[in-house]
C-alpha cells in the first residue's frame, strides 16, 4: 500500500507542536502537514501532570504564544488554564483537525535520493505499524519520557506501608486529606506540591538533600493587568512580553556577573519571609551559584506562608532507608508518613525516543552538533523545538517555528528539496548542550547533541539575540547546505 505523503510532519501536540502548526499555516499555507501525537489527547505536559496545584513557574506572557495574547489576570497560571489555552488555540486556528492521536513515531529514515523521510508510526491501542512520508520533519516532542518519571533506588522502599506516588503518575484517588505527607525533592514540583497539599494534609514535610534558590513573586502582574485595561489586547500583551523578557534577561545576567550579590539578595528575601529565627542557610542557601540550576519561583510566597503557619516544614538531610511507617534519615531522625511523594524529577528523552537513520546509517545524536539550538549537523530536513532553560520555553519555540517556515519558503523559492547544517570548521569545540548541574540534566546530557563553541553552533540562551539570528539572520550562511538532487526533483514533480 502507498504510504500517505506530507510536506511537513510535526511530532507532538503539546504547547510547541500546536504553536508550530499555527506558524506553518500562517507562513506556509500551501504546505500539507499533520501532527502525530502518541497520546489520546493534546496539551502534552499540561495534560499529563495532574498533581495538586500544578502550575507554570514562569509567567504566561512569555510562556504564551507570541501570536495569541494571554488574557487572564493570573500571570503564574494553573495547569488547567494552560491546557485550556493550548486547546483553545488549536480549535481557534483549525489545528485540531490536523492532529492524529495515538500515532507514536518510533522510527524515521531519511533518503537523500528521494528527499523524503519515511516515518514509522505505531497507531491505535493495538500499536499497528504504519509508515508515513514527508519532506520535512519537525520534532515538538518535548524533552522527557512520558512513560515514567525518575525515582532513585531507595533502600527498604518495599517495606513502606503507606502510599508512594510520583507526581508524573498522580491519579485522583491519591488521598492525603488529614494525612502526614513527605514530599521528597526541592525543585519546582516539590515547591508547588508542598503549600497546596498543606491546605488539606495533617502536615507536610519537604525532604531535600540540598537546597534550591527560591524566589517569591506575585502571581498577578499589576503592570500587565493595567495595560490590558488601557490598550488593545495584542499591544498590551506584546509590551508585557518584552517587559518580562528584558527583566528576565537582566536578572540572568546579574546572576552570572554578580552571583554573590544575588545570593545575598535572595537569602535576605527568604529570611524576611520566614522570620529572623529561621535557619535559612541550611534550607534555602544552595552551594551552587544562582542559575547554575533552574531557579524556583513561588507565587505570593505560598511555600513560606505554609512553613510559617506550621503546616509545612523543610528538612535537609539524606534518606538512609524507608521503613514500614516512613523514612529514616542519615541524622537518625525518623519521618512518619502516610503518603510519600517522590518529586525526584524527570527522565530526559532525546528527540522523542525515535530511532533515526540517514541513508541507511543510524544517527547517534550525541555525535552531532546542534545548529542554532534547533537542527542537527549532518541530519537533513529535520528541526526540533526545545525551549530555553533560563526563560520561558515558548519564546524559543516560537522563533524556531518561524525559522523553519523561513527555511521552507527559501527552499521553495530556489527549488531546493534538501537542507542540512554541515560542520566544516574543525576549530569548533564541543560543549554540552545544557550547562546545568542539576541531576536530571547530568544523568542524560551525554546522549544529547552537543553545542559548539561559536555561532551558529553555540546556544546563547538569549531571546533578543535569537530574534536577530532566527527571525532576521541569513539562511544562506555557509553552514546550511541546500540542494535539489535530480532524482528528488523528478519525484516531486
Ligand atoms: C510540571 C512542569 C511544569 C513546567 N513549567 C514550565 C514553566 O513554567 N515555564 C516553562 O518555560 N517551562 C515549563 N515546563 C517545561 C514544559 O514542558 C514546557 O514549557 C512545554 O510545556 C513543553 O511543551 P512541548 O510541546 O515542547 O513538550 P511537551 O509538553 O512535553 O509535549 C510533547 C508532546 O509530544 C508527544 N510525543 C513525544 N514523543 C512522541 C513520539 N515519539 N511520537 C508522537 N508523539 C510524541 C507527547 O506525547 C506530548 O504530547 C514545565 C514542565 C513540567 C513537567
Describe the structure.
By secondary structure, the chain is of the alpha/beta class. The chain has 2 domains: 4-146 and 347-492, FAD/NAD(P)-binding domain, CATH 3.50.50.60; 157-342, 3-Layer(bba) Sandwich (FAD/NAD(P)-binding domain). The chain is built from 14 helices and 25 strands. The chain has helices at 15-27, 45-48, 60-63, 79-92, 188-198, 222-230, 233-257, 259-274, 280-284, 302-308, 393-414, 439-442, 463-472, 486-492, and strands spanning 4-11, 33-36, 99-100, 103-111, 116-123, 128-139, 163-165, 180-184, 203-208, 214-217, 296-299, 312-316, 319-322, 326-329, 334-336, 339-342, 355-358, 361-362, 370-371, 375-376, 382-384, 418-421, 430-431, 451-452, 480-483. Strands 1, 2, 3, 4, 5, 6, 17, 18 and 21 form a 9-stranded mixed sheet that branches. The chain has a 5-stranded parallel sheet with strand order 7-16-8-9-12. Strands 13-14-15 form a 3-stranded antiparallel sheet, with no helix packed on it. Helix 6 packs antiparallel against helix 7. The site of flavin-adenine dinucleotide has 33 residues, from helix 1 and strand 4. Flavin-adenine dinucleotide is lined by residues 11-17, 36-39, 44-45, 49, 54, 56-58, 63, 104-105, 140-142, 146, 189, 352-354, 385, 387, 392-393.
Q: By CATH's scheme, which homologous superfamily of the largest domain applies?
A: FAD/NAD(P)-binding domain
| Shape, principal axes of CA atoms | globular
Mean pLDDT: 95
The CATH architecture of the largest domain:
3-Layer(bba) Sandwich
Low-confidence stretches: 489-493
| Structure classification | alpha/beta
* Number of discrete domains: 2
Count of helical segments?
Answer: 14
First CA to last CA: what distance?
21 Å
CATH topology of the largest domain: FAD/NAD(P)-binding domain
Bound molecules: flavin-adenine dinucleotide
Biggest pleated-sheet summary: 9 strands, mixed
CATH class of the largest domain: Alpha Beta
What percentage of amino acids are in beta strands? 15-25%
Helix content: 25-40%
Number of strands: 25
Radius of gyration: 24 Å
Amino acid at each position: 500500500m502507498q504510504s500517505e505523503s506530507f510536506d511537513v510532519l510535526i511530532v507532538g501536540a503539546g504547547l510547541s507542536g500546536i504553536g508550530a502548526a499555527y506558524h506553518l499555516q500562517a507562513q506556509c499555507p500551501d504546505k500539507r502537514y499533520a501532527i502525530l501525537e502518541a497520546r489520546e489527547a493534546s496539551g502534552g505536559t499540561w495534560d499529563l501532570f495532574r498533581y495538586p496545584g500544578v502550575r507554570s513557574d514562569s509567567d504566561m506572557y512569555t510562556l504564551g504564544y507570541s501570536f495569541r495574547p494571554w488574557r487572564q489576570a493570573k500571570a503564574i497560571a494553573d495547569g488547567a488554564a494552560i491546557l485550556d489555552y493550548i486547546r483553545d488555540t488549536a480549535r481557534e486556528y483549525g489545528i485540531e483537525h490536523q492532529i492524529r492521536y495515538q500515532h507514536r513515531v518510533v522510527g524515521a529514515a531519511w533518503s537523500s535520493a528521494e528527499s523524503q523521510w519515511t516515518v514509522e508510526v505505531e497507531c491505535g491501542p493495538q500499536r499497528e505499524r504504519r509508515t508515513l512520508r514527508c519532506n520535512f520533519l519537525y520534532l515538538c516532542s518535548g524533552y522527557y519520557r512520558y512513560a515514567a518519571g525518575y525515582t532513585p533506588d531507595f533502600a527498604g522502599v518495599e517495606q513502606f506501608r503507606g502510599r508512594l506516588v510520583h507526581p508524573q503518575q498522580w491519579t485522583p484517588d491519591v488521598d492525603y486529606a488529614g494525612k502526614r505527607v513527605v514530599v521528597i525533592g526541592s525543585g519546582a514540583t516539590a515547591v508547588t506540591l508542598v503549600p497546596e497539599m498543606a491546605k488539606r494534609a495533617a502536615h507536610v514535610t519537604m525532604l531535600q538533600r540540598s537546597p534550591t534558590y527560591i524566589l517569591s513573586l506575585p502571581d498577578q502582574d499589576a503592570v500587565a493587568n493595567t495595560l490590558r485595561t488601557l490598550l488593545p489586547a495584542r499591544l498590551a500583551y506584546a509590551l508585557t512580553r518584552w517587559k518580562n523578557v528584558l527583566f528576565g534577561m537582566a536578572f540572568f545576567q546579574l546572576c552570572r556577573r554578580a552571583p554573590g550579590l544575588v545570593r545575598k539578595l535572595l537569602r535576605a528575601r527568604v529570611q524576611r519571609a520566614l522570620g529572623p529565627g529561621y535557619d535559612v542557610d541550611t534550607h534555602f542557601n544552595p552551594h551552587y551559584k544562582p542559575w547554575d540550576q533552574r531557579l524556583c519561583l513561588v507565587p505570593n510566597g505560598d511555600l513560606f506562608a505554609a512553613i510559617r503557619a506550621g503546616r509545612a516544614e523543610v528538612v535537609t538531610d539524606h534518606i538512609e532507608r524507608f521503613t514500614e511507617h516512613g523514612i529514616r534519615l542519615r541524622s537518625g531522625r525518623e519521618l512518619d508518613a502516610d503518603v510519600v511523594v517522590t518529586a525526584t524529577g524527570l527522565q530526559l528523552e532525546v528527540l522523542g525516543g525515535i530511532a533515526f537513520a540517514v541513508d541507511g546509517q543510524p544517527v547517534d545524536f550525541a555525535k552531532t552538533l546542534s545548529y542554532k539550538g534547533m537542527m542537527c549537523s549532518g541530519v537533513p530536513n529535520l528541526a526540533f523545538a526545545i525551549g530555553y532553560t533560563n526563560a520561558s520555553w515558548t519564546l524559543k519555540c516560537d522563533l524556531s517555528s518561524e525559522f523553519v517556515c523561513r527555511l521552507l519558503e527559501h527552499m521553495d523559492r530556489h527549488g531546493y528539496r534538501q537542507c542540512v547544517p554541515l560542520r566544516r570548521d574543525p576549530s569548533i569545540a564541543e560543549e554540552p548542550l545544557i550547562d546545568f548541574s542539576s541531576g536530571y540534566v547530568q544523568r542524560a546530557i551525554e546522549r544529547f547533541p552537543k553545542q559548539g563553541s561559536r555561532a551558529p553552533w553555540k546556544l546563547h540562551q538569549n531571546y533578543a539575540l535569537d530574534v536577530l539570528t532566527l527571525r532576521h539572520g541569513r539562511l544562506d550562511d555557509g553552514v546550511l547546505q541546500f540542494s535539489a538532487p535530480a532524482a528528488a526533483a523528478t519525484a516531486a514533480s
